[in-house]
Specification:
This protein is of the alpha/beta class and about 350 residues long. Helix content is about 40%, strand content about 15%. The strands form 5 sheets. A 7-stranded parallel β-sheet has the order 3-2-1-4-5-7-12, sandwiched between helices. The protein has a two-stranded parallel ribbon with strand order 6-15. The protein has a two-stranded parallel ribbon with strand order 8-11. The longest helix is centred in the C-terminal third of the chain and has 25 residues.
Length: about 350
Amino acid sequence: MRALFIGGTGNISSACAQLAVERGIDLTLITRGKRTFSQPSAVRTVNMDIDNHAAVAQALGDATFDTVVDWIAYTPAHVERDLNLFRGRTGQYVFISSTSVYQRPVTHYLMTESAPLANPYWQYSRDKIACEERLLKAYREEGFPVTIVRPSHTYGETRIPLAVNSSPRPYTVVDRMRRGKKVIVPGDGSSLWVLTHNTDFAKGLVGLLGLPQTIGHAFHITSDEVMCWDQFYRITAEAAGAEPRLIHMTSDFITECIPEKLGTLIGDKASSVVFDNTKLKRFVPGFCATVPFAEGIRRSIAWFDADPARKQIDEEADALFDRLIDAYEHGTREARKRFQP
């Protein structure tokens, strides 16, 4: 099988590239070269910007692929670019969407691929929905061979996937735990969530590649291990050798103070959600996520601990979390005075 990944050096895509090569797939990456990972020697890499249509078309020449996976398409303009580039050039085009496209606020905890697509809280999700709709229109009207894949909250060695953390410097929350500082948990910590290791996601994604029966379908790929946020935080603290000091705050309070968290919390992680992977398992028999969070987070923390240079702290986010905790505790003290004079 000949495959082309647009991107391929990110948290999820690098694990998929590794597994694709292990399974004998002839893989080419188009990447801007801004991030690197330990690429298998069999991978061919083309360093260029996918938005440079003329350069990409020249580099590809008359090459065709059994499957093309775009890891970095976020807007309808990106999708339109890909339609122009890959019409007649691929037997399958895989669009990487997101489970955050599913209905928010949630009206039923169990999510299947047929759940309504609507998220008024997060522009990222609305853009992904618009991309899906454009691609399905192309499928219906011209037979464009799209398969939609929706990852949920996926992590690997370089990620500490807790609900309130610094995305660019994720060791920040582990550092807080190890220093005995409080860490913020949205809600009362009891809402249900799913975290998926990137190597498990790769089994599902690579299993779908090249399957003609997937055309026109959407699939989410997640672990079947469901836990509440308190459990995820406590397991992380245990892996870090720390005693967690959890402080629970409503997502409304957090987003009133830090509006940029609206999408990622109320538009995503604040809801209790369980993903039904039955459809994926019908198309990829034998799919099973085998990395429990306790093992995955141990790998992540070990990766950070292996090199002090990796243990970077987001000082701005750290200070912001301190201010948020101080404001919350001040408000709690003032409220207590009113009700318990």
